[in-house]
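Notes continue from the previous slide.

Worked example: a multi-chain complex. Inputs as given:
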Amino acid sequence: MTRKRRRLYILLLCAIGLGTATALTLTAFQDNLVFFRSPSDIIAEAPPPGRNFRLGGLVEQGSVQRLTGQDGRPQITFRVTDGNNAIPVQFSGVLPDLFREGQGVVTLGQMGPGNIFMAREVLARHDENYMPPEVADALRRSGHWNPASGDPPPAGQWNTLEPRRQGS
Amino acid sequence: MSSTTAPRGMARLHMLANPGRFMRISGVVLPWLTAAALATLAIGMVWGLWLSPPDWQQGETVRIMYVHVPMAWLAMGAYTGLVALAVSSLVWRHPLADVAAREISPIGAMVTAMCLATGSLWGRPMWGTWWVWDARLTSVLVLFFLWVGHAALTRAFDDPDRGARMGAILALIGAVNIPIVKFSVDWWNTLHQPASVTRLDSPGLHVDILYPLLVNALGFTLAFMALALAATRAGLMERRVRALQLAAARKVDVAPGATP
């Protein structure tokens, strides 16, 4: 009715239109917006040989092997898993400090011979949980969590834990 | 004014839009706000940088969080505030909203730049890279460009009202980026980890790390509000000086002898 009311409605209409357009665009580009692909994605739809892509997942428990390559440089092999499928990865270079079994990683490279992923770059991907070392130790000792097997238990179980008060 | 027909809560909000009243109230509030911000930040910094424990896997590097996360929250929260200012500027034509929006955008750009810089310093030792083009990092970079663009656009016109109108439209268009920043880590897979605090189940931080983070977030928010308030006051005074100068110039123009 008033001019203010009319301007408000026009603004709301524009917002709805813009929001819908953005949502449609983002849905259309869904596949291109992912930063990495999981082992299951790769097995379901193998990228063409020679194509660079990012493979992400957890470093499989017990799969890390540190070797020395033919050129004398340290070489590391491990398997990246998403729980259902795993892909062997080979990498020679410097690993981030957080690299360990059970840790999330994102690797960039291409599929090599024998379906081994030849990585040129390995990035560590950590989870969204933060806790003091004593709390992590307490969880490990009590058998609630093995860091090599993946993420910690639900935060409600440990985020108010006082390990010192439990008398180690 | 239609404030007599508006609901009482709205009327109170509109009352603040009167520049004279705003100057009076903000003059009283500003010293207290500044003191509260400094005190909270002092407590938060000592708690976060010295007294709080390191993280079990990230070690001392986790302390970057006490700056990075408040900056990220502020970058998004302040932009939401900018959107509210843009709406009240376009719908109700509040002159105060224009001044506040113009003054808030350089501070918002600075906060977003701090978020990006601290994130980069954190990413290098932990992830192994300064920067990747994943959805979270890219959308925050877009947010930074929106802040800088708003600051530049509002100052690009000779007529400040026109600049304010253009800035408000840009701010509203950029609003679509805010949910993208927030939910990018849930909608797509990213190198950046998902949210730790603002999620449905209990926060993924031990209380020894969570509490100093919340204190620092409060401190930085108060500091942002104090800066924004001081800048808006300065902007209003600037406008008043310009109006007085214009009036004086007009008086000289119409003075006898000066007529053509």
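Summary box: Chain B touches chain A through 47 residues (CB under 8 Å). Chain B is about 75% helix and 0% strand.
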